[in-house]
Automatic annotation (TrEMBL):
Gene Ontology biological-process entries: methylation; siroheme biosynthetic process
GO molecular function, one term: uroporphyrin-III C-methyltransferase activity
The enzyme's E.C. designation: 2.1.1.107
Protein family membership: Belongs to the precorrin methyltransferase family.
Organism of this sequence: Tepidibacillus fermentans
Annotated protein name in UniProt: Uroporphyrinogen-III C-methyltransferase
SUPFAM superfamilies associated with the record: HemD-like, Tetrapyrrole methylase
Alphabetical UniProt keywords: Methyltransferase, Porphyrin biosynthesis, S-adenosyl-L-methionine, Transferase
Major enzyme class: transferase
Keyword tRNA-binding: no
InterPro entries found in the cross-reference section: 4pyrrol_Mease, 4pyrrol_Methylase_sf, 4pyrrol_syn_uPrphyn_synt_sf, 4pyrrol_synth_uPrphyn_synth, 4pyrrole_Mease_sub1, 4pyrrole_Mease_sub2, CobA/CysG_C, Siro_Cobalamin_biosynth
UniProt domain Tetrapyrrole biosynthesis uroporphyrinogen III synthase: residue ranges: 268-497
NCBIfam families registered for this protein in UniProt: cobA_cysG_Cterm, PRK06136.1
Length: 502
């Protein structure tokens, strides 16, 4: 059997977007991924299907596996022929014990690669508005472990030299030893009025910063109940935080927001949430699939030249329409006389990307608004093609028929429930770690409720803000017993994010 390979990857300081491209490639290649608690869990979305996931996270009071066991695990998996990715918080070479893991691999002639990561020592202070150097304050810094090997007889830290050697001092993993750090630095000449900050879970939605001086920081940390993991930064650069803090000023900072859209469509909403400082958690409760019976759709595509109108009510409808054209080898030029209407700007944008100019785009992005926009252009006996979801509202075809039009209503796609990571979301809800839940359609509401039908949903949602993309979705939620407190005025993803922010 061939020997595998091990990637020793720095996952960055916490924000999942701060991992390197090479780091993502290593995750995607892995047959086995071995990860710790400081690697953001959303990075696991890059893991290929069927890969083995092994958690080896460490807390000060508990180790899932001892370091020697982790070393052996990497060796065993690689010798079994697997590509193994060891995902570690920050940069693996800065107090990440990557040297020990690499030595073990080298002893067994196992190929390995070290993939650097952005170290929390620099990134976390930056997210708190503290640059670690500044030409008006200091041009030197030291990075020190705040948690030395407890089995050592004496410290490797030369406090007498360290205390005043550099303008900025950074301690990693030092919260438990903060009183000792304070005592040693003051004893060895560091001014007790030196500014100091502790930043917990920096770059993440839970980021919390406590600022003080060497003299009073222990008391301030105790009062704030700040615990590990946290970065300690000492020096005059800490005073810049008051002017330079930026991350904590973002409108959605501190908010973990559940995104219930289909996986293929979640990225736009997730990106907007991240841009505004929130943390999106994707829980796609719907999946878009082809219709079970396509015979009617096939017939409509073959008769495209007969239609006076083609009305698209969603991006999914547009995509399925063009997929069907390709599948049946039908040229879009067959649609010679049809006028095109779209219910919203994203639908219109996709149509124009496909080369079709939209004739009608309503100001109100729902069926009622579309009907108002085209009512003066409709003529009895005109033929309308309506490719849309199997569960779409009936108001549009019904009112078109009332006006004397012939409506060919097609199930272009079906929406089915998809709650693959329900257990993970349930745990977050139980731990009250979800602040906002977004619903972008009635089907996301119905499927969300269905996913948790065996759970005490009202209890799980206590203290959680429910946000809806528009009144139709809100009405569906209300009918199912949910209390929506935010409804977007503009029925789009940017409109929903704007409503949440406000």
């Amino acid at each position: 059997m061939r020997t595998g390979k091990v990637f020793l990857v720095g996952a960055g300081p916490g924000d999942p977007k701060l991992i390197t491209l090479r780091g993502i490639e290593a995750i995607e290649q892995a047959d086995v991924i071995v990860y710790d608690r400081l690697a953001h869990p959303s990075l696991l979305k890059y893991v290929k299907k069927g890969a083995e996931k092994i958690y080896v996270g460490k807390r000060p009071d508990h180790h899932t596996l001892q370091q020697e066991e982790i070393n052996q695990l990497l060796v065993d998996k690689a010798l079994a022929g697997h590509i193994v990715t060891r995902l570690k918080g920050g940069d693996p070479t800065i107090f990440g014990r990557v040297g020990e893991e690499a030595e073990s691999l080298a002893e067994h002639d196992i190929p390995f690669e070290i993939v650097p990561g952005i170290t929390s020592a620099i990134a976390v202070p930056a997210y708190a508005g503290i640059p670690v150097t500044h030409r008006h304050f200091t041009s030197s810094l030291a990075i020190v472990t705040g948690h030395e090997d407890p089995t050592k007889n004496e410290s490797n830290i030369d406090w007498a030299k360290l205390s005043t050697a550099t303008g900025t001092l950074i301690f990693l993993m030092g919260v438990a030893n903060l009183p000792l750090i304070q005592k040693k630095l003051i004893e060895h000449g560091r001014d007790e009025n030196t500014p100091i900050a502790l930043i917990r879970y920096g770059t993440r939605v839970e980021q919390k910063t406590v600022v003080g001086t060497l003299k009073d920081i222990v008391q301030r940390v105790e009062e704030a109940k700040l615990t590990s993991p946290a970065i300690i930064i000492i020096g005059e650069v800490v005073t810049l935080r008051e002017k330079l803090q930026w991350f904590e000023k973002k409108p959605l900072f501190g908010k973990r927001i559940l995104v219930t859209r289909a996986r293929s469509q979640a990225s736009e909403l997730s990106s907007l949430i991240q841009e505004l400082g929130g943390e999106p958690v994707e829980f796609p409760v719907i999946k878009i699939v082809p219709p079970k019976d396509s015979s009617g759709y096939n017939q409509a595509i073959q008769q495209l030249e007969q239609f006076d109108w083609v009305i698209f009510t969603s991006v999914n409808g547009v995509q399925s329409f063009f997929d069907k054209l390709k599948e049946m080898r039908v040229d879009i030029r067959k649609m010679t006389k049809a006028r095109i209407a779209a219910i919203g700007p994203k639908t219109a944008q996709l149509l124009e990307e496909k080369g079709l100019i939209v004739d009608v785009l309503p100001q109100e992005f729902r069926a009622e608004g579309l009907l108002d926009s085209i009512k003066d252009q409709l003529q009895p006996a005109q033929k309308v093609l309506l490719p849309r979801a199997d569960i779409a509202r009936k108001i549009l075809p019904e009112q078109l028929r009332e006006k004397g039009l012939e409506v060919v209503e097609i199930d272009a796609y079906e929406t089915v429930i998809d709650a693959e990571n329900k257990d993970e979301i349930l745990e977050l809800l139980k731990e009250k770690k979800i602040d906002i839940i977004t619903f972008t359609s009635s089907s996301t509401v119905r499927n969300f409720v269905e996913a948790f039908k065996e759970e005490p949903l009202q209890e799980l949602l206590e203290g959680v803000t429910l946000a809806s993309i528009g009144p139709i979705t809100t009405d569906t939620a209300t009918s199912l017993g949910l209390n929506v407190t935010v409804t977007a005025d503009e029925y789009t993803i940017p409109g929903l994010v704007k409503a949440i922010s406000e």
